[in-house]
Amino acid sequence: MPISANPFVDITRIHRLSGVNPVPGRYVLYLMQQSQRTRFNHALEYAARQANDLALPLLVGFGLMEGYPEATARHYHFMMEGLCDVTKRLEDRGIGFAILQGSPVQTAATLGQNAALLVCDRGYLRHQRRWRKEMSESVPCPVVEIESDAVVPVECASGKREYAARTLRPKIERLLDRYLIGLSPTPVVTPFPSPLMPSERLDPFKGVPKSFKVDRDVGPVKRFKGGEDEALRRLRHFVWETLPRYATHRNKPEENAISEISPYLHFGQLSPLEAALTASHDGATHPEAVAVFLEELIVRRELAINYTWFEENYDTFEAATPAWAVETLAGRGTSKNLYAQEQLIACTTHDPYWNAAMAEMIHTGFMHNYMRMYWGKKILEWHADADEAYKTALYLNNRYFLDGRDPNSYAGVGWTFGLHDRAWPNQPGFGKVRSMKASGLKRKCNIEGYIERVEELVRKEKKRPPATKVGAP
Hints:
Elements: E1 14-18, E2 27-31, H1 42-53, E3 58-64, H2 73-92, E4 96-101, H3 104-111, E5 115-121, H4 126-136, E6 143-146, H5 154-157, H6 165-173, H7 176-179, H8 228-249, H9 262-266, H10 272-282, H11 287-310, H12 317-320, H13 323-330, H14 341-345, H15 352-364, H16 369-381, H17 386-400, H18 407-416, H19 438-444, H20 447-461
Parallel strand pairs: 2-3, 2-5, 3-4, 5-6
Antiparallel strand pairs: 1-6
Helix pairs in contact: 3-4, 6-11, 8-10, 8-11, 10-11, 11-18, 15-20, 16-17, 16-18, 17-18
């Protein structure tokens, strides 16, 4: 029996990695990694439909590995909170869920031996793509990859690395009617039988095993709780309470008129499609704000996905920095580093605004969007070598941010150095790369109010900056 189509999942989201016909098996397996949720998850619904067609139960597997690239205890804790929500929601639907210790490839190889079909979701970074290729070679059954974390599938939006938002925007906008479509849960016909459940599975409610070799120097934060329930609460609060001010106040860090959903998008605990549909429907009386939000959520976010998908070396200074920027940064007049990395982490620069932004990052795992730009620009200005500045910014970004280590991170840090931007008039310390100055902050917002807000956030965390092993980025 061939793998059937699914009318609820657009054919362009479906990628067959191996095989054509399901093989004899005891269940259909969905290997969940990127899309860590049960709502608006095209991979999950596709797998449920296939299980129904084959009259088989559905098992969802998740590989919890030690040493995930650049992950700290902060990231693991947030993710495990999210997997608790997944556990409860899948159980309510009669779907099995097994978290195994090991990499996604190891988990697929273990659970895939009894699977008639393996479905996986799509990731956009090098190691995620490599895992899915290895996964397809490690199991005897067919493997199908379903894209669910971009509103417009990356290769449908464009077939090449795009220069800027202005070149990608029209390509995405003409496809939105096709992809801004809701997704309903598929009732599972055959409940997953408990005797088939793997015995060695981990319990997410117990957190990360104490035996795990995890970088615990950067610990969990209280500002953000992981999971679908919290993601939906924040999304609805943003749309119902904050959206009316978003278009006019999003760049005022003292106001915090932003969504704060990026950690949930990063871990796949919130679907960008659900966020877009919720804002478009419930925020219809504020069309200007909705348009600005969709620009950030879809165009800008998927420009970042485009960058990491089509640029193999997306995490390097050479790939991120245009030729005009490289040339002018080399002669920008910065002769030595103004601060060592230890001073940056300690928030002890001469700039109180930068210090506040860094404190927000270290203590809460987040930073206001507008301050992220200023934060990165100052790191560039304060380093003699632009390549070293890039590595420092990316290291700090990925280490402390809950939403670090994803396409938005690589594109966001790259933007500091000219990626997806144009040349500007030559400035000391910046060359022709766009500059940002403290005087601009004072002119455009109540920056002292931002400092006060961060101080209050830090007080709520009720802890000092986490101890950090300082080393080369």
